[in-house]
Amino acid sequence: MIEKQHGIVWFTICRPTRRNAIDYAVMDELEQALQLVECDDEAKVLVITGEGEEAFCAGGDLQVFHQLTTKEEAHAMLWKMGNILYRLLTLPKPTVALINGKAIGGGCELATACDFRFARAGARLGFVQANLAITTGWGGAAMLFEKMAYDKALDLLLHAQTITAEEAERIGFVHRIFADSLRERCEKQLRCYTNKPTAVLRAYKEAAVGRWKTEEFRQRFFAEIERCAYLWESEEHDRAVQSFLAKRNK
User: Each residue of 124-180: pLDDT tens digit?
Assistant: First the structure.
């Protein structure tokens, strides 16, 4: 769902029964939100969040994407979302992930692509892809190594467990924690941005994202997609997903 209010474009993933997991429809809607923010001078900040209080985003919807069995099929999906997150990463306006609940796997990649991450107190976050015998596949690792200290970023990826928003703030992944009234607190936090001229916001963002528009970074970003696609068709990944789905459906 896309809303615009007081200079903020709110993009809400509205799949609470699937823990706001990403499918192809969500990808298409996110592209629409990015297009709006890019083209509308009255849209000064993009905020991405999830519906409800349980989940920000549970990553890719395994019930949908587990049907992709070959590296070619997986690559097409990974490339589509990877391109969207690269576009989000280099968007010429400020972006915020408002983490209202669990952010798991690709949900953390989505949050990493944003400039700022605000989280509900006690929310849990985790790059858990390694537990499914794959890597981040939407550019998440490339972005994380750019935005965090090397050792902390690598530990998050290899540990592959969830941590609290408070711990994520301590290591520099989360920037603000709100106990309640997330949307209101977020809007209040962003007023100092939305009262600035759009041209100023664009100028600072263009200065910031120039380092991610280089050919060297693009190669690293999209090489990650190739590696994940290769691992996707492995027997280890298939067994791990089957085991995960069986436990969740008990």
Answer: 999 999 999 999 999 999 999 999 999 999 999 999 999 999 999 999 999 999 999
CA distance 164 to 160: 13
The structural domains of the chain, ordered by start, are 2-181 (3.90.226.10)
CA 175 to chain centre: 15
State how far Cα 73 lies from the chain centre.
22
**Cβ 168 vs Cβ 174: under 8 Å:** yes
Beta strands in the chain (DSSP E): 2-5, 8-13, 45-50, 55-57, 95-99, 102-104, 116-120, 124-126, 163-164, 176-178
**Helix, strand or coil for residue 3?**
strand
Residue whose pair of structure tokens reads 């509308």 in the numeric block? 40
The torsion of the CA quartet 164, 47, 44, 6, rounded to 10 degrees, works out to -110
User: One-letter amino acid identity for 63?
Assistant: Q
The pLDDT tens digits of the residues spanning 184-242 come to 999 999 999 999 999 999 999 999 999 999 999 999 999 999 999 999 999 898 888 88
Contacts of 193 (CB under 8 A, 6+ apart): 44, 45, 94, 201
